[in-house]
Design brief:
By secondary structure, this protein is an alpha+beta fold. The chain has one domain: Gcn5-related N-acetyltransferase (GNAT) (Aminopeptidase), CATH 3.40.630.30. The protein has two helices and seven strands. It is globular, with a radius of gyration of 14 Å. The protein starts with 7 loop residues before the first strand and ends with a strand.
Amino acid sequence: MFSPRGNVTRRWKGYDPSSCAISAFEAGRLIGAANYVRSSDQAEVADVAIALAHKDHLRGVATPMLRRLGEAARSNGIRYFVADILAENHPMLKVTRDAGWPTSRPAATPFCVSAWI
């Protein structure tokens, strides 16, 4: 996967349709990692997480990583990502919107965002 800033992602582990992890590098330096893990009780649902080096926040890395994970997830029968995102984490909420998928947040909790991929 390539983003406008030349970051590439690679799979971290061997093939497993229930999970996937990717990483983003720039000039040989790890700048981010993302993964999903399929829910044990809902085959079309996966928890998703993204972590970036602090100095690489707001550089446009997370959205293409999330999209790439979505491609891998769809090819493995996953249709729905769930993530715990703090309500005040506006940059990460923007990443979920920028990925281009419909999102929702249950009224009962400010910490959970769901996206159909």
